[in-house]
From TrEMBL:
Protein name, as recorded: Sortilin N-terminal domain-containing protein
PROSITE patterns hit by this protein: PROKAR_LIPOPROTEIN (PS51257)
Gene3D superfamilies: YVTN repeat-like/Quinoprotein amine dehydrogenase
Signal peptide: 1-21
Keyword Signal among record annotations: yes
Recorded superkingdom: Bacteria
Keyword annotations of the record: Signal
Keyword flag Signal: yes
Length: 323
């Protein structure tokens, strides 16, 4: 019970971090000035000599590139060809980051000094972050929790408060943000909402992690079904038709897959993690399912390219591992 309370505090802290990131950045005048000075610099992706990430707001493998993308409060970080890369501008405070076949979706707040409205609403980039297209709620909403189908039609957001006809709770769009419907969440009995995962091809299929297990839906979240035992699940994503997820059981951080239809499960080997450093985000490369990455509460990032036989530390406490 003590561990459950500690982990719930950690997960609640993640929500507070996401909600408070922009406010924290607003108060840092020196950091804001630095961001503003970079706002008009030509956008380039350059190798990072040093890297320090304070908050990770999502990870994924966009289909228009060959690397792992990490969203942070000061722009994108990319890992490819055994190197980390930064961008010279567009250092937006990205949240709700979701990699897709054509690029990525995100929400959040713009870099100071740009002419973009704050908040960003729902935006999309098809050119590795060089430009972003406003899809919905531009200048109106900031979505900390969002998910999307990799190649299918399905975007899901958690709306935290009533906004006109846009209801609080989980809402979904099948037309890239033009129209929205509320997920009814029938048979959902968890006491809080969690991370969302969407099937990579069929956007009608989604799942949600909660403190009491994984709920699964084949009808856009209108009907939910508990498919695991009542364990705390901190992160999840689809790997084909199955779900890969991280749970905390008996003080251990575990990684598993489950077939939602048959209930069959598989345990994966991962590096040891302290119970106060749970996995926060998971990503699978749809073009190579043996390539999997995860981030943790303490901003560690691990990746495997051989289906979890070996794992490489890409970031430790948000910093690059030096050779």
């Amino acid at each position: 019970m003590k561990i459950q309370k500690i982990l719930f505090t950690i997960l609640l802290g993640l929500v507070m971090i996401a909600a408070g990131c922009s406010n924290k950045n607003q108060s840092k005048k020196s950091e804001g000035a630095a961001k503003q000075s970079n706002a008009n610099i030509q956008y380039k992706i350059i190798e990072a000599k040093n890297l320090k990430v304070d908050h990770i707001h999502g990870i994924g493998y966009p289909g228009n590139d060959n690397g792992l993308y990490l969203a942070s409060h000061d722009g994108l970080k990319m890992y490819k060809d055994a190197k980390w890369f930064n961008t010279t501008s567009n250092l937006h405070d990205y949240m709700g980051f979701q990699a897709t076949e054509k690029g990525f979706l995100a929400s959040g707040h713009p870099q100071k000094g740009t002419d973009l409205k704050n908040p960003l609403g729902l935006v999309q980039s098809l050119d590795k972050g060089k430009t972003i297209n406003q899809l919905a709620f531009y200048g109106q909403k900031d979505f900390h929790f969002m998910a999307a189908s990799y190649s299918g039609n399905g975007i899901y957001v958690i709306n935290e408060e009533q906004s006109g006809k846009f209801a609080p709770g989980v809402n979904y769009s099948k037309d890239n943000g033009k129209s929205w419907k509320k997920s009814e969440f029938n048979s959902f009995k968890a006491d809080s909402l969690g991370m969302i995962a969407v099937h990579p091809v069929n956007g009608d299929i989604m799942a949600m992690s909660t403190r009491s297990g994984i709920y699964y839906s084949q009808d856009n979240g209108n009907t939910m079904k508990l498919i695991t035992t009542p364990v705390m699940v901190t992160a999840l994503t689809f790997i084909g038709d199955e779900l890969i997820y991280s749970s905390v059981e008996n003080g251990s951080i575990l990684l598993k897959t489950i077939n939602p239809k048959t209930g069959s499960m598989k345990n994966w080997t991962i590096p040891f993690l302290d119970y106060d450093n749970p996995i926060t985000y998971l990503a699978v490369n749809p073009k190579n399912r043996k390539q999997i990455a995860f981030s943790t509460y303490k901003n560690d990032v691990y990746e495997t390219t051989d289906g979890a036989k070996n794992w490489q530390v890409l970031l430790k406490n948000g910093k690059m591992e030096q050779d």
